[in-house]
Amino acid sequence: MIEFDQVSKSFWTGQRRKVILDRVSFRVELGKSLGILAPNGTGKTTLINMMAGLEKPDEGRITRTSRISFPLGFMGGVINRHSGTENARYIARLYGLDPDYVEAFARWLCDIKEYFDMPLGTYSSGMKARFSFALMLALDFDIYLIDEGMPGTTDVEFNRRAGGILRERLEKTTVVIVSHQPDILERFCRSAAVLKDGQMHMFDTLEEAKELYDYQTQS
């Protein structure tokens, strides 16, 4: 479970204060995947990072009682001068998992051949995205966080393999995905919310959320 209780978050842009959340309260329950619709520039990445514990609120409280993934695409836990092998084994130990399994799984899913034994600093952006996705799927979480704005990979075969594994995981876990495209949410969620003017408007169905979102983006 993830619970936001009267949470506020804002940034100073140099010209004005940009409000991401203004005393917002909501809950993500296990087994109830949630899609969040928000236009670009409204704070989608900040919101998902707060759920993961990577950013703190200005005010209010965030409670986490489940195993929550790092956001898809997040590379903050790895070390660029270390190889894929070293990073995979390091992350496995952090989460109390078998390093041999995590390394073997990530090596198989990434399928980047000899680059897996080279420093991450030598990877292309696509290879780094593969490695991040592979690590997320190698670990065991109750809630998976997906930021649609995170870097992705254009490798068709990798997307097919990783997407198939993710779909299997989501049958028994929970996902929170933020996006500005309603059709992306349809693949993962039935209930949805709209982030608008610092407020989170919660709906039982994606169709209801889309009505408000469409009105917001057209007005």
Q: What is the radius of gyration computed over CA atoms, rounded to a whole number of angstroms?
A: 18 Å
> How far is it from the N-terminal to the C-terminal residue, by CA?
34 Å
Helical fraction equals 25-40%
Uncertain spans, ≥5 residues at pLDDT below 50?
A: none
Strand content: 25-35%
Helix/strand class:
alpha/beta
H/E element string? EEEHEHHHEHEHEEH
Instruction: Supply the number of helical segments.
Output: 7
Which strand order spans the largest sheet, edge to edge or round the barrel? 5-6-3-7-8
Morphology? globular
Largest sheet: 5 strands, mixed
Q: Strand tally, please?
A: 8
Mean pLDDT: 88
Description:
α2 packs across α3 (99-110), α3 packs across α4 (125-138) and α4 (125-138) runs parallel beside α5. The model has no long low-confidence stretch (mean pLDDT 88). This protein has 7 helices and 8 strands; from the N terminus they run βββαβαααβαβαββα. It has helices at 44-52, 84-94, 99-110, 125-138, 156-170, 182-185, 206-218, and strands spanning 2-12, 17-28, 34-37, 59-64, 143-147, 174-179, 191-196, 199-203. By secondary structure, the chain is α/β, with parallel strands linked by helices.
